[in-house]
Specification:
The complex is a heterodimer of chains A (290) and B (444). Chain A is an all-alpha fold and 290 residues long. Chain A has 12 helices and no strands. Chain A has 2 domains: 57 residues; 220 residues, Orthogonal Bundle (MetI-like fold). Chain B has 444 residues and is α+β, with helices and mostly antiparallel strands. The chains are: A mainly alpha (290), B alpha+beta (444). At the A-B interface, helix 1, helix 3, helix 5, helix 6 and helix 7 of A face helix 1, helix 3, helix 6, helix 7 and helix 8 of B.
Chain lengths: 290, 444
């Protein structure tokens, strides 16, 4: 006992010194990291400010000019607002339809891709890296690129937007789903295999029931994201509420009351779907936990 | 026996009902989806799509992406002959010089398209085309009576002839004759002038020759000159494109990091365990919902009115939209922090600030970092889209190139760059996430 305590007393200063040196080194590293980060932020801001048409400080006081103008015009013509809301409802429905169809198609394609690229479930295990790269590329292409190219070939309208969003969704969903699949138990799959089930049957009866709540939850989240995406694509010519918004914006001053109606519709839609999807997602995930 | 059966009956019935319901769902869900897709099929007018689709545009897109053409044009009014890549001024051969398959002698221009296809511009303004397997074509544009030619009444479908315009498309190239202009297009595979334009002294030289050979321009080394010629190549504008890519990444970086910094303090106000005042908490949460609900599209439009087009506007649009999202994610993470660590730190006599610093932040850092880095990657993509709307970065170049509907090779070049950029950012953020979070766990 005495020996040990004497030993530890002799060793304490050394341990303490080492500990303090370690702390100091860590502080130095975090300090350098922080300095680099601040430097990047500041210089980045300056470059962005420099290359922008209007500067940050000159623009800052004007930030509420446009919203104020829109609100003022909408208020002056508030009697016409319900009419406008009704008029743009079909466009809004088109935007939601684009989002729904592309989510549906993207989820179906993404499910297949994810099953094909998960170890233990893949139909052709050697092809797993190929399907992973396909998903990476699908995810990397911004929707707007595919949409614009397809608009050139197929003409304006909802179809280019659907294809563009569906392709991107397939890549994004495929990655999320394959992470879900990794956590699924392989025992049902092996059991089904042992009784001679085909690959489709193994996946449909062995895997999908295990992962369905998570699939649905991610699918809903994706739908919410796709509503926003389809509004944006409309703005570049793919139909729906975004297209109407761009038209009403180009009419300029004096006609912003219609833009206000569209803003209102878009805002309400996004909030409603945000709330619905987050409520159902909570229920799904909590249900899966119990 | 009978009592037991009685007790089982309701359960069996319940089970049967459950099965019946599940069966109903199993059949009705696909049926509903099918019905919805049928509705969409007609609502989006898919049957009419085949008519509206411009497949010729698709052909142009693909062929222009993988090939380039060289124009040999003669102005029929003054007889000058010019050679240019894609017929563009900046891709023109210097005055009086031509590609080696074009020979100009005393007013006669002989163009050899290969495989026996020979086109000759005659000094009198006429043109002849020796088409193997068809015959000898002659034409003379005149001021008054259109184009005189030896074409028969019935022409094959690769010849398009009217009074004032004749176009002949063969596998070797294309000849168009109008009153004012006679032009030959010859198609080549690949992207021309990608490294250097024709006026650069480095054009058409081999890599080894340039790196080891003598200086082509005495004032500076070949490497410096090549860099200058490449960077300022006015056909492909590599310098401008590089700046645009940088702007896009800058928008994503500034927007994401700025949003994280704005959202962190707000998240404390929206978290149940840190803000006991329900009214304040509710107000902050509604504010976050509002910011998220006003979509990036609307923020972008509003901000570009105030700040004008450019990367700063895009960065601010990302910053504001993501502040809402981050605020929500961070406040949920804060509500899930373990109180024990905070109590432990408090028991050593730490002040509130120290309690946050050593009790809360270390628990929060991994979630915070991984979310921020995940958003950094996805915002690189958003920045491309926002750039297309506000006018900044690679998104602007891409939409401009698509809208002109001419330079599809540039469009595909930009698309490849965007994909490479996003994949690189994906890889980088993943690498950083692994480094920082693993390092954090090891050290704490």
């Amino acid at each position: 006992m005495a020996d040990i305590s004497a030993d530890s007393v002799g060793g304490t200063p050394k341990v303490r010194d080492e500990y303090l040196a370690l702390i100091q080194r860590k502080r130095l590293y975090s300090g350098v990291l922080l300095a680099v980060f601040v430097l990047l932020m500041v210089s980045g801001f300056l470059v962005a400010n420099d290359r922008n048409a209007g500067g940050f400080l000159t623009g800052l006081p004007n930030i509420f000019d446009f919203p104020a103008e829109v609100v003022r015009e909408a208020w002056v013509k508030r009697a016409e607002l319900p009419g406008y809301l009704l008029r743009y409802l079909p466009a809004l429905i088109e935007t939601i339809n684009i989002a729904a169809v592309s989510t549906l198609l993207g989820v179906i394609a993404g499910t297949i891709l994810s099953l094909l690229s998960t170890r233990g479930m893949a139909l052709w295990p050697r092809m797993i890296p190929v399907f992973r790269r396909i998903m990476d590329i699908l995810r990397a292409i911004p929707e707007i690129v595919i949409a614009l190219v397809l608009i050139f070939v197929l003409g304006g309208g909802p179809v280019p937007a659907v294809i563009a969003i569906a392709l991107h969704t397939a890549g994004a969903i495929g990655k999320l789903y394959s992470e879900v699949n990794e956590n699924a138990s392989l025992k049902p799959v092996e059991g089904l295999h042992s009784v001679g089930a085909s690959w489709m049957q193994r996946m449909w009866l062995g895997v999908v029931p295990q992962v369905a709540p998570n699939y649905l939850s991610y699918g809903l989240l994706r739908f919410e994201i796709n509503v926003r995406a389809s509004a944006i694509l409309g703005f570049v010519g793919a139909g729906g509420i975004g297209y109407e918004l761009r038209n009403s914006m180009t009419w300029g001053q004096g006609r912003f009351d219609q833009a206000a109606a569209i803003f209102l519709l878009l805002f309400a839609t996004i909030v409603v779907f945000d709330q619905i999807s987050s409520r159902y997602r909570n229920r799904l995930v909590r249900g899966a936990m119990t | 026996m009978s009592t037991k059966a009685l007790a089982l009956d309701p359960r069996k019935e319940a089970a049967d009902r459950l099965f019946a319901r599940k069966r109903l769902i199993a059949f009705s869900a696909p049926a509903l989806i099918l019905a919805y897709l049928t509705y969409i099929f007609f609502a989006f007018d898919i049957p009419g799509l085949a008519e509206r689709a411009r497949w010729d545009n698709a052909v142009i897109l693909v062929s222009d992406t993988v090939t380039h053409k060289v124009h040999i044009e003669r102005d029929n009014r003054d007889g000058t002959v010019e050679a240019a890549v894609e017929g563009e001024r900046k891709g023109a051969w210097p005055e009086g010089t031509y590609p080696d398959w074009v020979a100009v002698e005393a007013g006669t221009t002989t163009i050899d398209l290969g495989d026996g296809h020979i086109i000759t511009y005659l000094p009198d303004g006429g043109v002849t085309y020796d088409i193997p397997g068809w015959g000898f074509f002659e034409a003379l544009p005149t001021r008054t009576e259109g184009i005189r030619s030896n074409l028969p009444e019935e022409v094959p479908d690769w010849i398009n002839a009217s009074e004032n315009r004749i176009a002949i498309t063969t596998e070797a190239g294309r000849l168009t004759v109008t009153r004012n202009r006679t032009a030959v297009f010859r198609y080549f595979a690949g992207w021309e002038l990608f490294w250097f334009t024709l006026d650069s002294p480095y054009h058409g030289k081999g890599v080894v020759e340039l790196l080891t050979g003598p200086r082509l321009v005495p004032e500076r080394s070949n490497v410096a000159g090549m860099w200058d010629g490449f960077w300022n190549n006015n056909m492909w504008n590599h310098g401008v494109v590089a700046w645009a890519l940088g702007e896009t990444i800058l928008m994503a970086f500034l927007g994401t990091m700025g949003a994280a910094m704005v959202a962190l303090p707000i998240a404390f106000l929206a978290a149940r365990n840190f803000t006991p005042f329900a009214i304040l908490r509710g107000a902050v949460r509604r504010l976050l919902d509002f910011v998220r609900g006003v979509d990036a599209l609307i923020w972008t439009i509003v901000l570009s009115r105030a700040f004008g087009p450019g990367p700063l506007t895009g960065a601010l649009a990302i910053l504001i939209t993501d502040s809402g999202t981050f605020g929500k994610i961070f406040s949920e993470a804060l509500e899930n922090v373990d109180e024990k660590q905070i109590e432990g730190v408090q028991s050593t006599g730490a002040r509130p600030i120290q309690r946050y610093r050593f009790g809360v932040i270390p628990q929060l850092t991994p979630i915070l970092l991984s979310q921020v880095l995940y958003f950094l990657e996805s915002n690189t993509r958003s920045a491309t889209i926002i750039g297309a709307i506000t006018g900044g970065g690679i998104g602007l170049l891409l939409t401009q190139a698509i809208i002109t509907q001419k330079d599809w090779e540039e469009v595909s070049y930009y698309i490849i760059l965007v994909i490479v950029m996003v994949i690189a950012m994906d890889w980088f953020s993943g690498w950083l996430r692994r480094r920082l979070i693993k390092g954090g766990e090891g050290g704490e």
